[in-house]
Amino acid sequence: MPDFIHIRLLDVVDIVMVAILLYQLYRMVKGTAAIRIFAGIFAIYLLWKITQALQLKLLSEILGQFIGVGVIALIIVFQQEIRRFLLYLGSNRILNKTVGGRWLIKWSEKNKNKLEVEPIIKAVENLSLTKTGALLVISHQSELKFYTATGVEIDALIHEELIESIFFKNNPLHDGAAIIYNNRIKAVKCVLPISDSELPPHFGLRHRAAMGITETSSAAAIVVSEETGEITYFENAEFITKITPIELKQRLMNL
Fold it and tell me: C-alpha distances in angstroms, 175 versus 5, 165, 171, 205, 231?
């Protein structure tokens, strides 16, 4: 049997793993400007191969030099997507599938307090009823120090009245996000990364910031629209619109 049709079991495993890797990468860049950049780079690569086949030496040399630094260019252009992919690999969903990962998660979370869900739900419900805009970030794996440093650190216990007062329209701290970690409100008025993903047109800056933080970290985010009072929940770069307080409570308890 010729070598080129000889397929080993390891070859099949290799193909499947590459397919899974490419699929996960596609999911992360789908709907963003990165997918168009990737398509452009792929088109240049195909053109380079065509020029090589046609022996167009000058054009092939120019394109070859471009492809030669392509890896560095890809790292620069896709740094956000690469970060998101690495965070996905280190997330609980992946670690939970291995014995060592489950032990690591249990060890890292043994000193964390159980999230006080009730005051968060009540505050969000009241903010929704009064159509008070709000952005809450709940982190369960990291303190998000890079983002808490952009705001005002308060390190306070979670209270319904405190959350409502933070986002009161006349409060100078109401702009930006409030970050909750280890059962405490770590900081308010925090600046979050803005997502460039394709979102519904009625989504505002708060929604894009909520999507941005869930794309670049394992945190979840809650947005209350000041126009409609609608509650939107963000997690793992996905969102649920018009979520009810009961559904929101279940989501937070699952964190």
Answer: 62, 12, 9, 11, 17
